[in-house]
Automatic annotation (TrEMBL):
HAMAP family: Shikimate_kinase. Its cofactor is Mg(2+). It comes from Denitrificimonas caeni. Belongs to the shikimate kinase family. Its EC number is 2.7.1.71. This is Shikimate kinase. Pathway: Metabolic intermediate biosynthesis; chorismate biosynthesis; chorismate from D-erythrose 4-phosphate and phosphoenolpyruvate: step 5/7. Binds 1 Mg(2+) ion per subunit.
Length: 174
């Protein structure tokens, strides 16, 4: 049962990194964060990678990391908000994994990302407009590969984890 991967997808500020870490503790599985993994392997921050290589360069690095981590077993993996953009990533992520879409409204995404300068796509005059456009484009892609969708606007991280665990208790015993 514990050999499958548990993959968190969803927009910036949905809580993938925060909830992924807590969920990994609950499941007693190793936790990986594709954004962190990219930074460690590149030896550069995400903003610097975007500056030097552009978003396309970042997406190439992201694809390589996702392919490798999805090839492993028994991980909890928090992905970046744009990891679903490439069909190759969607295919790799849905392969034998439980894919959990953490949903958050633009209002909550905005509040949760406001003070963090580490997200290059939001360093603009109007982050609300950017988040709205990104969610419209990506929401169908998140839904396409989701095993489970959880609303995070009204639930603190621990409650989100509890809900995931409740779902898994029936899903894993099928
Ligand atoms: N359910 C929640 N309720 C309130 N605050 C939350 C919730 N989930 C996460 N947060 C807070 O929102 C901020 C962003 O969370 P986090 O970094 O986990 O998002 P993310 O989905 O990993 O974003 P990214 O796609 O940019 O990596 C953090 O400060 C975190 O504490
Ligand atoms: O939503 C996105 O496209 C991104 C989200 C972050 O997790 C990082 O992967 C990066 O800042 C891009
Ligand atoms: Mg994250």
């Amino acid at each position: 049962m514990q050999t499958r991967n548990y993959i968190l997808i969803g927009p910036m500020g949905a809580g993938k990194s925060t909830i992924g870490r807590l969920l990994a503790k609950e499941l007693a599985l190793p936790f990986k964060d594709s954004d962190k993994e990219i930074e460690e392997r590149t030896g550069a921050s995400i903003p610097l990678i975007f500056d030097v290589e552009g978003e396309a360069g970042f997406r190439d690095r992201e694809q390589a990391v996702i392919a490798e981590l999805c090839g492993q077993q028994g991980l909890v993996l928090a992905t970046g908000g744009g990891a679903v953009l490439r069909a190759e990533n969607r295919q790799a992520m849905r392969q034998g994994a439980v894919v959990i879409y953490l949903h958050a409204s633009v209002e909550h995404q905005l509040a949760r990302t406001a003070r963090d300068r580490n997200r290059p796509l939001l360093q603009t005059e109007n982050p609300e407009q950017v988040l709205t456009a990104l969610l419209a484009l990506r929401d169908p892609l998140y839904r396409e590969i989701a095993t489970l969708i959880i609303e995070t606007d009204t639930r603190p991280p621990r409650m989100v984890v509890q809900e995931i665990m409740q779902f898994l208790s029936t899903y894993n015993s099928r």
